[in-house]
Amino acid sequence: xxxxxxxxxxxxxGPESSMGxxxxxxxxxxxxxxxxxxxxxxxxxxxxxxxxxxLGLVSEDDIQQVLAHQFSYPYLRKGQAGLSxxxxxAYDPFCPQVESLRAIRSQLMxxxxxxxxxxxxxxxxxxxxxxxxxxxxxxxxxxxxGEQTLLVDANLRAPxxxxxxxxxxxxxxxxxxxxxxxxxxxxxxxxxxxxxxxxAGTLPPNPQELLAREGFRNLNTQLESRxxxxxYDVPPFQSGVDSVAVASRxxxxxxxxxxxxxxxxxxxxxxxxxxxxxxxxxxxxxMEF
Length: 289
Known about the structure:
The protein is α/β, with parallel strands linked by helices and 289 residues long. It contains 13 helices and 7 strands.
């Protein structure tokens, strides 16, 4: 922030100086280009970013990136950080799908987390219904809200989150539950300061038994004391009772179905078994892809 450009700005232009400095620091503007922008800004009275766009020196996307930085709303350019391109909340946060995600986030904040709850299981009904993808994107939008968010990959049969977030192979939930690791298995996602991921870890021969142990209840209590939001990505309901074990510990579940794929009867059966296990079913989300 020591650019000499800042000293040429009129008094009271703090936000604009931040815009110019961030564009300089990111290499989007050269100092001589910034001088051109400042001259246009002085002549026309428009904002720094608007002047830079008019001169063709930066794009609207460049300006959105800087604004996101200024207002602590992180997101990435396509291909940046090596995350899965399916993480629309990371790469395309203003698209209609992510707007829908934010609406779901608001409902969950009001109906669940505002009640003092911290954990929630994202339960897919059938394989390939998009529940893992939904969970990862939901975790991102919660972190963009400034909530300290942990996404736990509790699918100890076919985990997805390590690949989605480009995490190096490491120990995870299964190793922790087996007493072979500790909370160091949690990985911070550098691109999102408020987001962490606990990968599934070593695929065990007994996932159902591991998740049903008292140790998992104790772990959930520990995680709830450290994070504002704990989201569990679990195996699809039709693959076994792992999802019920996790959801009962979390206390609440959100069902995920896929349009023209998931049967209504399967959704009803999943909801009934979750309720019977003492879990509150908050509702369902229909994925279309």
